[in-house]
Recover the amino acids of this structure.
């Protein structure tokens, strides 16, 4: 009996401590051989950046060929809580017209800004239907398909 109680106590303690450990996830660009901060402005070119880092996570919307972004982040998720970003690294590499690196900026989680979303909704045009109109709206609006196979335009029973 004492052994069973000790086993249950140890099992419940293990379950409680397992709930306290976060699940850590790493998303985005992961540097393997070279890091984005090793890129030197004025000496590296697009080709050397591609060789060292690979393809960028994304490019600029307006200057697609001139600005590349390498983005990575680390998230932690505790048992029933939503995931929370704990680290973020955005490396912006800017190229000049000749293809050489002109600027390298590294931004962290502290450099980000919270954008407040607008909670208003755009109204849908049209008429609001009640539940009964939705359920009974097609009753009496047509007829069932005929089973005559020789009449053109009718469905065949398969």
């Amino acid at each position: 009996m004492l052994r069973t109680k000790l086993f249950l106590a140890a099992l419940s303690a293990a379950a409680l401590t397992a709930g306290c450990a976060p699940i850590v996830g790493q998303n985005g660009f992961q540097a393997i051989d070279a890091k984005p901060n090793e890129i030197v402005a004025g000496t590296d070119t697009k080709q050397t950046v591609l060789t060292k880092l690979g393809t960028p996570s994304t490019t600029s919307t307006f200057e697609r060929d001139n600005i590349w972004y390498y983005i990575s982040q680390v998230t932690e998720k505790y048992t029933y809580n939503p995931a929370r970003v704990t680290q973020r690294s955005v490396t912006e590499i800017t190229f000049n017209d000749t293809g050489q690196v002109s600027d390298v900026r590294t931004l962290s989680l502290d450099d980000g800004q919270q954008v407040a979303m607008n909670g208003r909704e755009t109204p849908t045009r049209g008429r609001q239907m009640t539940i009964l109109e939705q359920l009974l709206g097609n009753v009496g609006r047509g007829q069932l398909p005929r089973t005559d196979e020789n009449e053109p335009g009718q469905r065949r029973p398969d």
Observations:
- Residues 85 and 114 are 13 Å apart (CA to CA).
- The beta strands are 23-28, 58-59, 67-77, 84-95, 101-108.
- The chain has a mean pLDDT of 80.
- The two ends are 67 Å apart (CA to CA).
